[in-house]
Amino acid sequence: MRYALSPTGDLITATPGAAGVCRGCGGGLIPKCGGLTAWHWAHLARDCDQWAEPDNSWHLDWQSAAPADRVEVTIGPHRADILTPDGRVVEVQHSPISAAAIVEREQFYGPMAWIFDAREAFAAERLILYRRPTWAGFRWKHARRSVLACSRPVFLDCGGDLLFRVRRIGIDTRGRCTGWGTVGSARDFRVWLAGPAGAVAA
Ligand SMILES: [Zn+2]
């Protein structure tokens, strides 16, 4: 987790020796400061949200784009990764997720969007974009097929500034995952996430 509630009621990021509790369950958190993952908090006991993905630097980095009060927002028994300025949930997903879990989350959160970590697929040219002036087709070898279960907006973080919005995805007659979408800027998206409540999406 990126934030803990401090003894004085502030939202604080993890630093060595700091103390804090989870906003969701009130349980104690310990700062994890070291290793390969960016500094974060972990529950002393089991994580109260069974949907939480293991902390990873990519996930934490996306969360760092939004103000603290719109990150890890408790909604019922779950913690939404990010809330947009207009109040929608964004789930940022690095780990594998099943189609059933995607459907369950979309039903629970209602209006929401997904950002999937596609950096490795893009770098390895398993995810290939065929750019046109206003859109781009794509082919995705060994795709995360569960993405096909998404009915809400899907963004693929391809690394650098490239954030690809999937408009259509499917399996063609030869069994290949293909589709089309639009190329966007991760930086612009982050600027919008950081913006004041009520700001309308670009
Ligand atoms: Zn908790």
Task: Explain what the structure shows.
With 202 residues, the protein is α+β, with helices and mostly antiparallel strands. The chain has two domains: 1-48, no CATH class; 52-194, no CATH class. 16% of the residues lie in helices and 35% in strands. The chain has helices at residues 57-63, 99-109, 119-123, 186-194, and strands at residues 4-5, 11-12, 20-21, 28-32, 40-43, 71-75, 78-83, 89-93, 112-117, 127-131, 136-140, 154-157, 162-171, 177-185. The strands form three sheets. It has a nine-stranded mixed beta sheet. The longest helix is centred in the middle third of the chain and has 11 residues, at 99-109. It is elongated. It starts with a strand and ends in an 8-residue tail after the last helix. The structure holds zinc ion (ZN). Residues 22, 24-25, 27, 43, 48 line the site of zinc ion. Zinc ion (ZN) is lined by residues 22, 24-25, 27, 43, 48.
Question: Topology of this protein?
Answer:
Elements: E1 4-5, E2 11-12, E3 20-21, E4 28-32, E5 40-43, H1 57-63, E6 71-75, E7 78-83, E8 89-93, H2 99-109, E9 112-117, H3 119-123, E10 127-131, E11 136-140, E12 154-157, E13 162-171, E14 177-185, H4 186-194
Parallel strand pairs: 8-9, 9-12
Antiparallel strand pairs: 1-2, 3-4, 4-5, 6-7, 7-8, 10-11, 11-14, 12-13, 13-14
The structure holds zinc ion.
- Average predicted local confidence, pLDDT: 95
Beta-strand segment tally: 14
| Secondary-structure-derived class | alpha+beta
What is the helix fraction of residues, given as a range? 10-25%
Order the strands across the largest sheet as they lie in space: 6-7-8-9-12-13-14-11-10
Whole-number count of domains: 2
Ends distance = 28 Å
Order of helices and strands: EEEEEHEEEHEHEEEEEH
